[in-house]
Amino acid sequence: MRLLKITKWELKNTLWSKKFIMIFILQLGVLILMMTFFNSFITGIDSEKGVSLSPSLSGFASIAVSDNNTILVNRINKEVLNIEKMDYKNSFARLKDGKITTVIVIPENSQKKVKRFQTISVKLYLNPEDPKQAVVLKEVNSSLEALSASISEQWIDSLIPSGKSANTRVKEEKKGESLPLQLINKMMMVVLLFLPLFLFGNMVVDSIVGEKERKTGEILIAMPLSHSDIIIGKNMAIVLTIALQLAIWILILLVAGFNIENPLLVYIGVVSTSVPIIGITSAVAAYSKNYKEAGIGLSFIYIIIVGFLIVPALAYVSNGSKWSNISPMTMIIRLFSGENTPAIDFLIPIFSIVVVSLVSYLISIKLFKRDDIVFGPRPGIFRLMLDFLGIKKGSF
Amino acid sequence: MKLLALSKKEAQDILTNKIYLLIVIVQIFIILGSFGLGIASSIVTDPELLDRYGVASSLKVGISEDLKYSSIADNLKEQNLNLSFLKDINEADELLGSQLVAVIRVSPEGDILLQSDTSNVFYPVVFEKINTAIQKYKLERKLEAGGLSSDLIQKIENPVVLNRITVNSGKYTDLALNSSYFVEIMYGFIVPFVLLLPFFLASNIVTDSIVGERERKTFEILLMTPYSSTLVIIGKILPIFTFSMIQSILWLILLDLLGVPIYNALILMGIMIFVGLAFIGLGILISMCVDSTKEANSAITLVLMFASFILFIPLFMKIPYFENIINFIPTVLMVKMASSPSFEPSVLFSLVPTILISTLIFGLTVKYFRHERAIRL
After folding, report:
1. A146 in contact with B at a CB cutoff of 8 Å?
2. Shared-domain flag, residues B332 and B211
3. CB atoms within 10 A of CB A183
4. Does residue B322 lie within any of the structural domains?
5. Angle of the A201-213 helix axis to the B293-316 helix axis, nearest 10
6. Which of A1, A312, B143, B170 is 20 to 30 A from residue B337's alpha carbon, by CA?
7. Can you give the CATH number for the domain in which A118 is found?
8. Do A134 and B97 touch (CB under 8 A)?
9. Is B184 in contact with A60 (CB distance < 8 Å)?
């Protein structure tokens, strides 16, 4: 009951704060921006053409083309290359000055050459000083391959009677979703779902370090509450706030048309993952002297947590490895993708959530119980670890 | 002299702050990590580079043992693919996705069935290689049936010859990897990202400097000194701005040393000055709207997220409606400038909105600061 009182009090303080409401709305703004980005990626994907995750600046490199018979110019990818009409007076000077990336010259009599079965010699002038020449070279090569294939077909059709020509049919059967598509579909969605968990670190720090900085910790400890009531009560309020934000977050994603299978299980899974994350955050906050120190500690700890969550999930997306189930992020991916998952695969992340939660809360409570940590002089981490292991006599 | 004294004190605060120095070191790791990732992803996506580094031979493609000496097998070997000859082609179904990236079946009529595992990281490259081999096979089959002379066959197989001619042959760019993907990812994203990183930190230092002083109750004392508000704010931001600018220049040199030559460094610095002013202006604005470091941190995180969207999303997305606006976004200008050996004066025109918006943000926040003096009763 006392624990609930702390939770109620913390929640009331948070939800009645105008600044919290403003930050809450801004966070929703970030979500909507991310959704727009995500949606544009998805709509821009044409799996037949393949998916690229590279920057897509139109007109990144430029090319001056001399192609009177327009046999090549229409095959060049205009989304990547800025095509200029060749001007013999200026184009070469502009190439030398680095103002255009390349110049390509198709012989004026190219059409006649095709009719006479003569090889077409294309000249590509490059400025080796310009790094973008690699981009142009790739685009030109693929355009020329298409042109070559078309001329070869034309020649074969006129040289070999249609009845004699062997026509090979090619059929492709694809298995699995392409990796970039999976990265966009699965990883981006899971990142969106896990984002709220990392936006509340400041709240945990404020509720624990804030008490130390505002010198209200003494009053709190003097109250008829146990240390575990204080830590668990405060953290429960934050988990509930995350649960609220996540509910709104998932609702918006569903309304926006994102396909989330098993939304309730996904919701429960993400909220459960927030418990150990908040536990670890509160352990860092309990040990920190001030906001700044807690900030650095959290930055490093969050890098490790994100690594623990994301690396196995990436491994799962790329090769479906078994050990990737250790991360709750993998569990969420499998849940929202609607995969048939054996129950044993869910036991591993649930076990990791429970173990990390227990250990982190235990450490937070132990740290908060120690007067030298709350009021100072604070012992170093090494000494603390020795105390914890019972090597030196201490409060642990 | 007053300005110098204040700037010196602020500079000392920055240089003795272990967190800021730690973040500088973290940035070096970010740059090296991004560079390494750029190299690795370029190799994975480029068939030529895969061949050069000997990775292509580990890409296994299944084919029936009957086709061991066929032209399709020769064409696939020419593409440096590692062929796995299967006695029973039906076992390929089990191996596809685990040991094989693709399986090729040829019917007695000569038609080809290509089965591929698209979820494999090397699928795009393997597909490109297999496609080249199949196209060659198709052409060979057609030519075989026609009974043409070998000279004519050779001509039909290569109707277009590309001659590469280099101008400015004395000057070469010292690129770490001459690959299309590497150039796109490095210049199209990593360069503006790395050069702007210190300014993301700058807005944090500004809030820390103003809100921190307010929390320590030293800001009121500073305002009571015979320094004007303008002097106080310039004295505070000058060292932060210089600290960030020095970092950006160092990262620019580091990228150059890593094999990503940066052109038009002076113009880039000009762009960074104005973008930096906007970031610092936002930092001042946030400092005046919040009561504590905690609030400042939350607000700055969100503002930087929005700024990242505006600055970096246009690099990855094609938005036809905003095509004309995109060319005025500072990161897009940075990409163009950093990768061009020449300087186009028209860029200065594109820079006008950045200059105006940054000066406006900075000017307004300084004016607001002079009016409120960051104290709210």
Report:
1. no
2. yes
3. 16
4. yes
5. 160
6. B170
7. 3.40.1710.10
8. no
9. yes
Instruction: Give contacts of B 90-119 with A, CB under 8 A.
Output: 96-97, 110-119
How many angstroms separate the Cα of A262 from the Cα of each of A188, A254, A275, A337, B169?
18, 11, 21, 9, 62
Q: Do A152 and B313 touch (CB under 8 A)?
A: no
Looking at the structure of chain A, the number of domains it has is 2
pLDDT in tens, A19-66: 677 777 877 777 777 777 777 666 655 444 444 555 666 678 889 998
Stretch 237-276 of chain B: residues touching chain A, C-beta under 8 Å: 260-261, 263
**pLDDT tens for each residue of A262-312:** 899 999 999 999 999 999 999 999 888 877 778 778 877 888 898 899 888
Say yes or no for a CB contact (<8 Å) between A130 and B341.
yes
- Residue reference for tokens 């007109």: A59
- Reported in sequence order, the residue ranges of A108-169 that DSSP labels E, i.e. its strands, are 120-126
> ipTM for the complex?
0.83
| B219 shares its domain with B366 | yes
Instruction: Give the count of domains, chain B.
Output: 2
Tally C-beta pairs within 8 A across A and B. Answer: 251
Q: Name every residue whose Cβ is closer than 8 Å to that of residue B301 and which is 6 or more positions away in sequence.
A: A199
Shared-domain flag, residues B202 and B344: yes
Name the residue range of residue B323's domain.
2-43+179-372
**Chain B residue with Cα closest to A297:** B19
Whose tokens are 């995500």? That residue is: A38
- Please answer yes or no on whether A57 and B344 come within 8 Å at the CB atom: no
